[in-house]
Amino acid sequence: MPGPKDQSCKTFKVWANYAMAYRKRYSTWPVWNAKVGGQLGQLVDRLGADVAHHVAAHFLKTSDAAVLRKCHSLNELLANAESYHTQWVTGQRINGTTARQMERTEANVSAAEQAAQIVLAKRQGGERNEYL
């Protein structure tokens, strides 16, 4: 496996998890270079050494079309690290389809609430008119 060999290295664990999950998904090792090392260092700084390696491996389970087109690039992981952390903690994987489904559900709930308010307003208005 390419990458750091020193287990005390800040990026060793996060790289190992990312690289192993990457190899499992794509049947090849990801590229290791100075940029990758720097990105993983930033990921550890942002999420903490105790969870960054979990998030990196979880990221490789993402099947969002935009992530797949980029072959699970570390650029994407780093750009949305906190989102992937939340997905790891909650056990959810949000992609374009699930986001649209959630958006439609929210829109339906909002429409139902508005309809209920209109019905209530009409009922209250009708009751007032009866007493005038």
Number of domains: 2
Could you list the spans in which at least 5 consecutive residues all have pLDDT below 50? none
- The 3D shape can be described as elongated
Q: Count every beta strand, where a strand is a DSSP E run of 2 or more residues.
A: 0
Can you summarize the main beta sheet?
none
CA-atom Rg in angstroms: 24 Å
Order of helices and strands: HHHHHHH
Tally the helices.
Answer: 7
Could you say which structural class the secondary elements and strand pairing correspond to?
mainly alpha
Distance between the termini: 84 Å
Strand content: under 5%
Mean pLDDT score = 87
Q: What kind of assembly state do the chains in view correspond to?
A: single chain
Give helix % range. over 70%
Write the layout of secondary structure elements.
Blueprint: H1 12-26, H2 34-47, H3 52-59, H4 65-69, H5 74-79, H6 81-90, H7 96-131
Helix pairs in contact: 1-3, 3-6
3D architecture notes:
By secondary structure, the chain is mostly helical. The protein folds into 2 domains: 1-94, no CATH class; 95-132. Helix content is 71%, strand content 0%. It contains 7 helices and no strands. Helix 1 (12-26) packs parallel to helix 3 and helix 3 packs across helix 6 (81-90). The longest helix is centred in the C-terminal third of the chain and has 36 residues, at 96-131. It starts with 11 loop residues before the first helix and ends with a helix.
